[in-house]
Amino acid sequence: MMAITEWQIELLFKEWKSFNNLKRFVTRLEHMVRGLIEASLLSLLVKRFMGRVAQ
Fold first, then answer.
1. How far apart are CA 23 and CA 46, in angstroms?
2. pTM above 0.85, yes or no
3. How does DSSP assign the chain, residue by residue?
4. What is the superkingdom listed in this entry's lineage (predicted)?
């Protein structure tokens, strides 16, 4: 199992924020915000997976 360092987590969040432009939400509904966050995380995971498969 690979050990994840705090720095790797910081880089992941930085990539996540820049990839999905998560600066402001158009809604204040909690379930909508949660759905947007989950969808953006899923899209980042798919992007990373596709990058690894392409190598």
1. 21
2. no
3. -PPPPHHHHHHHHHHHHHHHT-S--S---HHHHHHHHHHHHHHHHHHHHHHHHH-
4. Bacteria
CB 37 within 8 A of CB 16: no
Establish how many alpha carbons lie within 13 A of residue 6's alpha carbon, considering only the half-sphere containing its beta carbon: 0
Cβ(18)–Cβ(47) under 8 Å?
no
The residue length of the chain stands at 55
Per the CB < 8 A criterion, the answer to whether 43 and 23 are in contact is no
